């Protein structure tokens, strides 16, 4: 028993993230494994458990398995997996599961992403906080006595080959023109999944020449943080693409559920452009299968080019809040064929409404390899606007800052939406911007877009000046 660790410090809205040995330990994880089974009613059912390459992941996976088996679940240990491998396993095996990962966070962190059978996410709205509270009780008071003979079994299963074959079945790359691809795994799980899916480690080779960058699995991240959202973490990939004369570069985060794309010149391709490119492919495929108006999901701060393209291609765009649990819920409710976020999370109906960076990368490879233009030229079609990117301002009173910005907009011909933060859009379509308070940090996040670079810069600077003047 312990009263030293407060689980509310590591349980977030969508997953669990903590500092190893401080806010997440083997003891807390064992209690969470037991609570996972009890809250979700999984006694007698299969529970899948895997982990990434972080040094603490194997120990934590074993601890979770002990807690889950003690409460009657039959555990299948998946070993080293990416997060989207867990979703694949939960979908194809119709079982709930957990992967130990802290995604792009530094090496001293670890955490858990949980899913129900069918890869349905477990978030604060769908049981995560109930699991937290029951696990806290088990930590403070001890696990309840298990009925004799009621404990479950623990077996081992490898899903990498099935995962690779499944992705290959969704996007056929066998007939594309030869492409040279630099892949930066960031010492994360893409170092294992890339050779399996895009290489010839488990399946016949494809017309791809893979140049590996940091494929060694190392959860201490000795080369750079596995967070491709930060521009400095793309520099090695950008240089390698140019040096090798590659057709493109792919950068994955630590647990390989996000993918960023670099063109042949070393320039990043925006996630909004990737969303539009994949949306076009998925709409065309759905319509060819008889679907009249396929639905594509995008979040509020994705480029306006995405809903415009979806409409042109005969689909229907549905906007949702930022966050994977929101998008997955809307994907399911709408029967959407695809969804994309500005953070480079891409969701597929054919992948259990879950996000997978590898499948998005395969769509990019198929689109590029199916024609002769370079990626920079191909992507330009999907980036007609000029974006600011996400800019953070540290503001103590976020609401007051937004209020001051709205006061400055009085009398202007704009529309205002408050679905996810505050979005101001010029009614003539010349610009829009969104101010969204961070839930976990003292930041106000600015994202903006305009039809020309001068307007984008002017609006950005005016808004940020107001925001940063607020005490």
UniProtKB/TrEMBL annotation:
- One Pfam family assigned to this protein is PGM_PMM_III
Keywords (A to Z) from UniProt? Isomerase, Magnesium, Metal-binding, Phosphoprotein
Cited Gene3D superfamilies: Alpha-D-Glucose-1,6-Bisphosphate, subunit A, domain 3, Alpha-D-phosphohexomutase, C-terminal domain
A GO molecular-function term, please? metal ion binding
Alpha-D-phosphohexomutase alpha/beta/alpha domain sequence ranges: 10-133, 163-266, 273-385
Instruction: Name the cofactor(s).
Output: Mg(2+)
The alphabetized list of GO BP terms reads:
carbohydrate metabolic process
Question: Do the record's keywords include Metal-binding?
Answer: yes
- Domain (Alpha-D-phosphohexomutase C-terminal) spans 390-465
* Superkingdom: Bacteria
InterPro entries for this protein = A-D-PHexomutase_a/b/a-I (IPR005844), A-D-PHexomutase_a/b/a-I/II/III (IPR016055), A-D-PHexomutase_a/b/a-II (IPR005845), A-D-PHexomutase_a/b/a-III (IPR005846), A-D-PHexomutase_C (IPR005843), A-D-PHexomutase_C_sf (IPR036900), Alpha-D-phosphohexomutase_SF (IPR005841)
Q: What protein family does this chain belong to?
A: Belongs to the phosphohexose mutase family.
Instruction: Identify this protein by name.
Output: Phosphomannomutase/phosphoglucomutase
Tell me the organism: Zafaria cholistanensis
Name of the coding gene: manB
């Amino acid at each position: 028993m312990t009263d030293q660790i407060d689980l509310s410090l590591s349980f977030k809205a969508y997953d669990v993230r903590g500092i190893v040995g401080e806010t997440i330990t083997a003891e807390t994880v064992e209690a969470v494994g037991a609570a996972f089974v009890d809250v979700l009613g999984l006694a007698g059912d299969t529970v899948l458990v895997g982990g990434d390459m972080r040094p603490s992941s194997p120990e934590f996976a074993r601890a979770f398995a002990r807690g889950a088996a003690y409460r009657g679940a039959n555990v299948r240990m998946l070993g080293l997996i990416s997060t989207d491998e867990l979703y694949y396993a939960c979908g194809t095996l119709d079982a709930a599961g957990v992967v130990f990962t802290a995604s792009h966070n530094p090496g001293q962190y670890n955490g858990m992403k949980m899913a129900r059978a069918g890869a349905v996410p477990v978030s604060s709205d769908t049981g995560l906080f109930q699991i937290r509270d029951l696990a806290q009780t088990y930590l403070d008071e001890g696990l309840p006595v298990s009925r004799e003979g009621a404990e479950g079994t623990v077996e081992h299963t490898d899903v990498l080959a099935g995962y690779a074959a499944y992705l290959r079945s969704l996007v056929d790359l066998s007939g594309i023109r030869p492409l040279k691809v630099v892949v930066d795994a960031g010492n994360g799980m893409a170092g294992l999944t890339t050779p399996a899916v895009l290489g010839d480690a488990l399946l016949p080779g494809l017309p791809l020449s893979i140049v590996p960058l940091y494929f060694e699995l190392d959860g201490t991240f000795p080369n750079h943080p596995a967070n491709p959202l930060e521009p400095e973490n793309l520099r090695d990939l950008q240089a390698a693409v140019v040096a090798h004369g590659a057709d493109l570069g792919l950068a994955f985060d630590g647990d390989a559920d996000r993918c960023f794309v670099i063109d042949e010149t070393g320039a990043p391709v925006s996630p909004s452009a990737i969303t539009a490119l994949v949306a076009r492919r998925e709409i065309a495929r759905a319509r060819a299968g008889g679907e009249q108006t396929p639905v594509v999901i995008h979040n509020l701060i994705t480029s306006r080019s995405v809903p415009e393209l979806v409409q042109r291609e005969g689909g229907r765009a549905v906007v949702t809040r930022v966050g994977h649990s929101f998008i997955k819920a809307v994907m399911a409710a709408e029967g959407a064929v695809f969804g994309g976020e500005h953070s480079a999370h891409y969701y597929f109906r054919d992948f259990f409404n879950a996000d997978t960076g590898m499948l998005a990368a395969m769509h990019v490879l198929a689109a590029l390899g199916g024609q002769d233009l370079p990626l920079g030229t191909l992507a330009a079609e999907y980036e007609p606007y000029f974006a600011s990117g996400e800019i953070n301002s540290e503001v103590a009173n976020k609401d007051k800052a937004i209020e001051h910005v709205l006061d400055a907009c009085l009398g202007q011909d704009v529309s205002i939406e408050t679905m996810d933060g505050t979005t101001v859009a010029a009614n003539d379509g010349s610009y829009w911007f969104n101010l969204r308070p961070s839930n976990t940090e003292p930041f106000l996040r600015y994202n903006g877009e305009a039809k020309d670079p001068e307007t984008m810069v002017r609006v950005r600077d005016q808004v940020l000046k107001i925001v940063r003047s607020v005490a």
